[in-house]
Design a protein that fits this description.
216 residues; Rossmann fold; two-stranded antiparallel ribbon; 32% helix
């Protein structure tokens, strides 16, 4: 199956050239869509130009609406090859978009839940392409990705926000994410009180400050 990003449903914060502007890619959670992360767009633009993508796969039962970046098994592990297909589709979309609208001064990605796991996977797959990464209620996917060998050298800044008792991400995944980030982004983790699986308003405040710090 060939996966591609549907350019007709990308939700942009503004039109026009990307040249000379910081650019933020937004990736929603499972069974959601490109409207889900509007709070982040409202907080960071301008100066950031944001583009919220729609996942290329319809969500599967028992979900009745929305989209995903990859299908998963009962351990929320991507079905074989789907994570790679989606990463390649997003990178191809970025190449086409920048060729058409100009090259930004810096390129960021932020995701929630499954989109947050994918944001880390994009970092691992093509670390040289990202100025910084935001992962909210996400986790580090198991396995080894070729590009991640450069992470310790590049030390790309990462903001990892999560609720203390998030029921959707099991403790083993939290531990694995912490261990993976420790070598190159030891200050990434930001823990918020509560047990929700959501983009909290305080997360948005903190990630906005984080993104602006990368522009300094």
């Amino acid at each position: 199956m060939t996966i591609a990003i549907d350019d007709s449903v990308v939700k942009w914060s503004e039109t026009g050239s990307l040249a000379g502007r910081p650019f933020l890619l937004l990736l929603h959670g499972y069974a959601q869509d490109e409207n889900q992360l509007d709070a982040i767009t409202a907080a960071v633009s301008p100066p950031f130009v944001t583009a919220a993508l729609r996942g290329p796969r319809p969500a599967r039962a028992p979900r009745t609406s929305g989209y995903g970046w990859y299908d998963v098994d009962d351990r929320i592990v991507p079905l074989p090859g789907q994570d790679v297909e989606t990463v390649n589709a997003i990178l191809a979309w970025l190449d086409t978009t920048f060729a058409e609208r100009g090259t930004p001064t810096s390129v960021f990605v932020a995701g929630f839940s499954q989109g947050a796991a994918l944001s880390l996977h994009l970092l691992r797959s093509a670390p040289e392409r990202w100025t910084a990464v935001v992962t909210l209620a996400g986790y580090w996917l198991a396995g080894t990705v070729k590009g991640e060998a450069a992470l310790d050298e590049l030390r790309t800044p990462v903001f990892w926000g999560r609720s203390e008792g998030d029921p959707a991400v099991v403790p083993a995944y939290v531990d694995a994410t912490r261990a993976a980030l420790m070598s190159f982004a030891p200050d990434a983790e930001h823990v918020y009180p509560g047990d929700s699986h959501a983009v909290l308003p305080e997360m948005v405040v903190d990630l906005t400050a984080f993104l602006h710090e990368q522009l300094a």
